[in-house]
Hints:
By secondary structure, the protein is mostly helical. About 70% of the residues lie in helices and about 0% in strands.
Amino acid sequence: MNGQQQAAPHTVPGVDRQDARQVTEILQARLHALNDLALTLKHVHWNVVGPHFIAVHEMLDPQVEAVREMTDTTAERIATLGGVPVGTPAAIVAARTWDDYDVGRADAVAHLGALDLVYSGVIEDHRRAMKATGELDPVTQDMLIGQLAGLEQFQWFLRAHLESGGGRLSTAGAHTLQEAADRASRGTGPA
Ligand SMILES: [Fe+2]
């Protein structure tokens, strides 16, 4: 993480300005990931087809709403700490470390497989951010803990469609969105 020598111009009382700077950098990365996730969930809402269309189409809108709420809380925490939240599309594209969602019109299960991988990436990075902010700013950490509970529950909603009775996830071992979509489409039979 760069910029650790720079302090925030001002921040909340009782927080070191350099710590605040570090926290806002962590949060900016989470803001990009959440903005990206909200857009991606809508993309799937529009492109899902097949027999499970309505179930998945309708399952995703509450997730979009909740994730949008998370982006708002995260951006406002950055501002509260003295930072400048950046929410423009070009900034997301420039900063992101993940592939753009590349599944277009496809069966519900294929999208759910790809989304499982998307959620895994967001959740892993969110958990790292949660751990990193524990010492620096427990108020921010508390916010991230709440968000993680929601994100993990949403991933469970997806995974319940991808899991066999024996608990095997059809997307296990997938490294790309396409791979996850293909594995999900094939189902939870033996690998
Ligand atoms: Fe809609």
